[in-house]
Amino acid sequence: MRGIRALVQNTAPGKLSRSGGFACYRARTSSGRATGPKLRGITKLLAKKLYSSATPPSDGSWRGSAWQGAGGGLRRGKAVDAQVSRLAKGSEALRKRSRMLKLTRLTFNALAYHGLVPVDAQRVVIDAERGIGTAIDVVCMRGQAELVLVELKTGFGGDRTRDAGTCMQKPLAKARDSHINRHFAQLAITLHLFKRETRTLAKLLSKNVDAVSGCVLYVDGDVSELFALPGWWERRGDLLADRIA
Question: Which is deepest, 63, 70, 228, 241, by most CB within 10 Å?
Answer without folding.
Answer: 241
